[in-house]
Amino acid sequence: MQSHTIFIGATRYAEYCAAGYQLLLSAGCRLIENKKSGPYSEKELIEIGGQLSGVICGCEVWDETTISAAPNLKVIVKFGVGYDNIDLEAAKRHHVQVANCPGLNAISVAEHTFALLFSCLREIPMLDRSTREGKWERKVYPDLFHANMGILGFGAVGQAIAARAQAFGVHLFAYDKFPDEKAAERLGVRLCPLDEVLRVSDILSVNLPALPETFHLINEEHIAEMKDGVVIVNTARGILADEQAVAAALCNGKIGAYGSDVYEHEPMRGQSPLASCWNTVLTPHLAGESRNSYARIGQATAEGVLAVLSGTPLAHRLA
Questions:
Q1: Where are the domains of the chain?
Q2: Does residue 19 register a pLDDT over 80?
Q3: Active site residue 237
Q4: With a threshold of 0.90, does the pTM exceed it?
Q5: Which of 38, 118, 137, 312 shows a CA-CA span of 20 to 30 A to 264?
């Protein structure tokens, strides 16, 4: 294979994706790595675009402007599942193949979902702070046992959440546009319309993709349909929730607590209305980032890039 330059937008790839990193080096690729704490800007992508044959995409944006600045670009493989930062139509116009890595970080996202959920249910961050301050606050919290847990989006992540939720003895409900009935039966999940899941859930896990029809799905109207004091966890995409509506519902008690790993504008840097609500638990879009998932996705992304550059079929192709 001739020498190619690959941009790695996913951070700490060399450290956590050693097998994939070595695979690219062994193929003779020159690597440009994102060593920042956040994504490359449009200006930075344009500056390197002319060198690139392939991209392992993190959170940086590949749209008409950045893709057109990379005339030799052949392939973008998303480090993860969500590809809302990649303009598929622009990629098609410029004959750039695009793929993602579905299911490979599902376990990590499911585990992070429960970390956020228990932090919300039992106010762990607040109690940690108050205990360090010398206080000794006594409270009574709801059990997860026998609660109604709704899962919006019953793909790989939703199913991984359901599998783990079984151990806590919850009643499981799920909504998905294309439901997997066999998985639901295996996991003891009742598949329902969206409005029913919203209505019956004590706890709601948001795991839908970012699509035009899911934009601000968690909005004032849908929040009004939910139980008073519902706990919501969003580890999918920030645009699924209207943060102004969520913040208002947190302040008036309609939503009991909100755990989120994703935001309408990222990096959030405290700009979201969620940051001023005491009953939120917020993490910086890292639910899918575990050592095991990085290793799996690193291998898959490297193989995907090299497949296109060597003329072989691309798995999980989106464009």
A1: 5-104+290-309, 106-282
A2: yes
A3: yes
A4: no
A5: 118
**Average pLDDT score over residue span 92-103:** 97
In which band, very low, low, confident or very high, does the pLDDT at 1 lie, cut at 50, 70 and 90?
Answer: low
**Radius of gyration, alpha carbons of the chain:** 21
106-282: CATH class = alpha beta
Q: Is 98 a residue whose pLDDT tops 80?
A: yes
Q: Which tens digit of pLDDT belongs to each residue from 99-132?
A: 999 999 999 999 999 999 999 999 999 999 999 9
Question: Which of the following is catalytic: 42, 199, 266, 316?
Answer: 266
Is-catalytic flag, 266?
A: yes
Dmax (CA) for the chain in angstroms is 66
Whether 5-104+290-309 shares its CATH topology with 106-282 is answered yes
Which is the catalytic residue, given 237, 264, 296, 303?
237
Q: Answer whether residue 6 shows pLDDT above 70.
A: yes
Q: Is 93 a catalytic residue?
A: no
Choices 3.90.1170.30, 3.40.50.720, 3.90.920.10, 2.30.130.10: CATH for 5-104+290-309: 3.40.50.720
Model confidence at 269, pLDDT cuts 50, 70, 90, reads confident
Rounded Cα–Cα distance for residues 6 and 8 (Å): 6
Among the listed residues 278, 274, 258, the one whose alpha carbon sits nearest the alpha carbon of residue 126 = 278
Task: State how far the alpha carbon of 217 is from the alpha carbons of 17, 26, 161, 210, in Å.
Answer: 34, 45, 20, 10
Residue located via tokens 């990096």: 267
